Structures are given as C-alpha cells and as structure tokens.
Amino acid sequence: MLKVAVMVSGGGTNLQAIIDAIQSGIITDTQIVAVISNNADAYALERAKKAGIPAVCVSRKEIPDRETYDDALLAAVEASGADLVVLAGFLVVIPTKMIQAYRNRIINIHPSLIPSFCGTGYYGLKVHEGVLSKGVKVTGATVHFVDEGTDTGPIILQKAVEVKAGDTAEVLQRRVMEEAEWKLLPQAIQLIAHNKVQMVDGHAVVME
Ligand code: GAR
User: Fold this and answer.
1) Whose C-alpha in 34, 105, 121, 145 is 20 to 30 A from the C-alpha of 153?
2) How many Å lie between the centroid of ligand 1 and the Cα of residue 24?
3) Are residues 131 and 80 in the same domain?
4) What is the average per-residue pLDDT within 6-24?
C-alpha cells in the first residue's frame, strides 16, 4: 500500500481528483495519509475533512522564521509516514532538506508543458496568462519529480491541451484542469504505486 501525503494551498481540485480516483479504483493500493496546507483557509482542507483524511495546516503566518517553517513542514510530512509526497497546487518553495530526504519521492503537477511557462513567477493563473500573451496554440500539464530547481525535476507525464481563440486565462485554466491535470496526477500516482516509474540516466522512464 503506497502512503501518500498531499500538499495544497488553495481550492484542492487536484486533491479531489486523487480522492475520486482512489474511490473509483483508477488508483489502487494507495492511501492518502495526510493533507498538508500552508493556508488555513484553503478549501482543500474541507475536501480532506469530507473524505475523512487527516488534515493539518502549517501556516507561514504563524511561523515567520523560514528555517523553523521548513523544519515544521518536513516534520509534518515525516509524521504522516508518507512514502510519496504529492504537490497539488502547493505554492510554497519546498525546503532543500525535504527534497534531499524524499529524493524522487515528491511529485508536482504544473499547468503547462514544461519547459515552457514554468519556473519562478509561473503559478496558477499566471501560467495561463503567459500562454495567452505569447499566442501559443497548444499548452497542457506536466507531472514531474521535484528537485532543487523550480519546475526543473525529471518529467514523468505530460498531456497537451488546445488553446482556443477567445480563451481567457480562467477558461483555459479550467480546460487544462479538466482535460489534463485531473487525469494526469492520478495516473502518475497509480504508476508510482505499481513501481512503473524508474530513473534511468537522470530521466524518469514510465515502464509499460
Ligand atoms: C493547479 O492548476 C496546479 O497545476 C497549479 O495550481 C492549481 C491548483 O489548483 N500549480 C502550480 O501552478 C504550481 N506551480 P487546485 O488547488 O484546484 O488543485
């Protein structure tokens, strides 16, 4: 049984997609052992509560010192006993200590086709605003392992989504979520739960 901790900051639709995929059997042999938020008002915490999943908030406001905060985040993950950490719209930079302790055991969903529209400053709606300002016709989502860089870790899965004439950032965000993110993240967890993702020469390879 793969034990997963899901880290969130906001609405938690990706968390919901994982909960639903476990309930419907799209993800098997997997249990969410904790939901960890940096934001006490995140609706994701409600979703966890409704699903009966232990949820905690490690608030930056309450722990202003960055090192103390990083230690508290790592402690929350360790206390959960998770084998895999899933960043599902978690908008805090992951402490280096956690990356080292959970090397290739932290995955992140990013709402673009990395290496486009990623890195510092590209999160949430800003990603889709960037896509629209460049006029690209295809965007998508990426699930990747987390390394010390911002959105630079080994890519596990990607899915393309069409950009349509007249899209607003909000409309495009919704399409990327529906057509890519909510499918890709459960799919990546299912693959990892069944040892189907291996590191070869620094790249993540999906074994069929
Ligand atoms: C998602 O679109 C996710 O890909 C994005 O934040 C949103 C969270 O939505 N993450 C990033 O931009 C990370 N760089 P949710 O809370 O409804 O899952």
Assistant:
1) 34
2) 22
3) no
4) 98
Q: Are 179 and 189 in contact (CB under 8 A)?
A: no
Q: Are residues 1 and 96 in the same domain?
A: yes
Model's pTM, two decimal places? 0.97
In angstroms, the first-to-last Cα distance of the chain is 20
Rounded CA-CA distance 127/91 in Å is 13
* CA gap 154, 123 in Å, rounded: 18
Is-catalytic flag, 110? Answer: yes
Q: Which domain holds residue 36?
A: 1-102
Q: What is the mean pLDDT of residues 166-191?
A: 98
Q: Which of 6, 9, 13, 92 to mutate to test the pocket of ligand 1 (most atoms within 8 A of CB)?
A: 13
Asked if residue 208 has pLDDT above 90, the reply is no
C-alpha span between 87 and 144 (Å, rounded)? 10
**For residues 193 and 30, is the Cβ–Cβ distance under 8 A?**
yes
Most informative mutation of 109, 174, 179, 182 for ligand 1 (most atoms within 8 A of CB) = 109
Instruction: Give tens-digit pLDDT for 85-116.
Output: 999 999 999 999 999 999 999 999 999 999 99
